[in-house]
Amino acid sequence: MCRTASAVDRTWPPLFMKEKDMFSVGMIGAGSIGASHLAAVEHHPDTRLVAVADIVWERAQKAAAPYGASAYSRYEEMLEKEHPQLVIINLPHGLHETCVLTCAQFGAHMLLEKPMSVSHKSCVRMETACKAADVLLQVGHVQRYIPQNRAVRAMIETGRLGELAMICDLRTNNYFTPKRPRWFLNRAMAGGGISMNYAAHSLDKIQYLTQSSIERMTGSCTYLQPETDVDGSAQMLLQTQSGVSASVSLCGYSVVPKDETMLFFSRGALRLHTGSDVAFTVGGTYEEIDCTCYPNAFDAQWADFISGVRQGRILHCDSAYGAAIIKWIEQLYEKE
Q1: What is the pLDDT of residues 223-233, one digit of tens each?
Q2: In the Cβ-directed half-sphere of 14, how many Cα atoms lie within 13 Å?
Q3: What is the rounded distance in angstroms from the CA atom of residue 89 to the CA atom of residue 108?
Q4: What pTM did the predictor assign?
Q5: pLDDT reported for residue 153
Q6: DSSP label at 31?
Q7: 149-166 confidence digits (pLDDT tens)
Q8: CA–CA dist 41, 97 (Å, integer)
Q9: Is the Cβ–Cβ distance between 211 and 6 less than 8 Å?
């Protein structure tokens, strides 16, 4: 069963460190999102980057150099020589399991980029290995940390708009752009296409906004892009355990980009453009909500992860949460 957004009460073995001791951090995979993770490490007073590993050594060196960290072309060598206490994993989805199992053997706590893996069975093996090694694994579902999403959640909690009735989540984007790394278009490595990559965000967002787990879901996807075996569009209809219905529509063909989530209430509506703006209405014009009081999403995610490690527990997106999202996406693919 998928977890709600409330704190998880499972405890982990405590870290034998003084409160003010700094954690050493290694990053595996220096892709585009890695820069945001490294900035978050730098901004946190209790963490320092010691190494970056990437199969392309020059890329690892470029990412590590601004922080005075070492660069490696093999993450196994990085783990053996640097022994980082925390590891950020930013690899193609199909490489997640092997990397997590290796890091667990070295006793490193991990922040793993979403989606957790390419199959639910793989996720279960990863969770089992981390439990056996007494290490913490947090999956990088970042939706709960994005300022606009947090502003929506805060508005919901005021009750001003009444009871939440339904959610419509729409995302259109040219998924098959030449700039996208080719491994994303290989199902064996990516686990799927737009559903695996974007629906993972949508399902995370809906569960955070409703503070409720998904109870049931149905849907379908299409495979219309030549020379690929991944899906390019998907539609899902789901219901949360709290009774809120939601639709998710994703299109990755030749479209004008759009990322909009509409939330409809008994006395109004919220219009959410995640990462951009959010506004509400009570039947007239839309009024924008100020989101500047919230910190950068990656800074907030990293601080939450460190807090979880300090306290010996994961606060939100643990391996069970990440695995449940993969299970729902697998269910969509099983309907093909």
Answers
A1: 999 999 999 99
A2: 5
A3: 11
A4: 0.92
A5: 98
A6: -
A7: 999 999 999 999 999 999
A8: 23
A9: yes
